Amino acid sequence: MAQQARAIRTRRIILDSAAAVFAERGYERATIGEILARAGVTKGALYFHFASKEELALGVLSAQLLDEPLTPQDVKLQELVDQGFLLAHRLQTDSLVQASVALALDSGATSVDRAAPFQAWVDQVAEALTVAKARGEILPHVKVLDTAELFSGAFAGIQTMSQVVCDRDDLTHRVVVLLQHVLPSISTPAVLTGLDMSQERAKRLAADYEESRRRHEDADGTDAER
Amino acid sequence: MAQQARAIRTRRIILDSAAAVFAERGYERATIGEILARAGVTKGALYFHFASKEELALGVLSAQLLDEPLTPQDVKLQELVDQGFLLAHRLQTDSLVQASVALALDSGATSVDRAAPFQAWVDQVAEALTVAKARGEILPHVKVLDTAELFSGAFAGIQTMSQVVCDRDDLTHRVVVLLQHVLPSISTPAVLTGLDMSQERAKRLAADYEESRRRHEDADGTDAER
């Protein structure tokens, strides 16, 4: 377990370093040597985790997705709302998530499969919408794939705009606005009334997420001491 | 007039070249020398139109906005729909518009005011929504600025996603989906029913736009011969 905790930490250091070098130099110009120098790990350690620069890119790209599923809610659409709030929080606070999204949106990174993270988001949202549809939460005319792609694409855009304009300070508000404009077109009125799209919920979710992260890290730390 | 037509053409050649160099080398690394070499114009001609690399960036950025206003419609919200369709068409066909949006979304271009084009779009949309509100086309609860920012940000995101996934082949469809999801939340039912958000309208607008451009170019050409 101690070894595993160390490995997780080393992996994260390498990913953080790769993300920083990609952001500063651009993905195409970045070299493994620069990433090694910044991470301060051995070549062996890096290649143990990532066989190539492409694998490092995939690692950075996948960091925008949550490791663990959200707390299940009675209303599936509420989970979709929560997902948006949590991603906003992680974009505001986690430099690896920021770098991950920047890489996905970097039109200069021509040798990276930038469609993959978009597809992963579309899949997650489509899955939630499919369950919501089966439960009768959404209106019959809704085409799950169209709506899932709209959510993913629109979110990518509003977070970019928020970053450019105010370093993502107002991102939670923009997510509320997105939800308020889109959900009335897909949700049944009864479900819509019960949805909590408030900034207060966003804050509570963010606090719970940080609390859970701290607990994980403490657990890892204890393991590492043993 | 001949001189003016030549000047317009030279300006466009310089902008196209700047856009191409920014896209290939990244804005920060691009030099005026490279842009000159690609444009094949004299240093004097370039500096007559643009005093600095920053001014070239502003020129490229402003190319995403239309030179002329759209054909006015009885229903103001229809103009908003038309604007979305026309931008989709220009993003699909005009390399300068593509480069303009790429520059606005390039997080590496740190010395460019990337907020300016977003602000210009928000202003245009907010202006249309303000008129629509005064005419009673939109619901009373709508906050014009929030909705304008949502439209601009969401559009930026869906066009990025469309570019990454299929080189913007499906962009018109994605714009229809965006409109179908957002307009029911802001439009009065009577106005909503009369809006034409069809791909057929998008095609017609694109054809009219190209026709008008050709006429302008012919007129310029005739002037230049005189």
TrEMBL record, chains A, B:
Entry keyword set = DNA-binding, Transcription, Transcription regulation
Query: Is the keyword Transcription regulation assigned to this protein?
Result: yes
Q: Which residues form the HTH tetR-type domain?
A: 8-68
Whether NAD counts among this entry's keywords is no
Tell me the segments the record calls region Disordered.
203-226
Q: Which InterPro entries match?
A: ArpA-like, DNA-bd_HTH_TetR-type_CS, Homeodomain-like_sf, HTH-type_TetR-like_transc_reg, HTH_TetR, Tet_transcr_reg_TetR-rel_C_sf
- Residues in the DNA-binding region are 31-50
Q: What is this protein called?
A: Gamma-butyrolactone-binding protein
Q: Which organism is it from?
A: Streptomyces hydrogenans
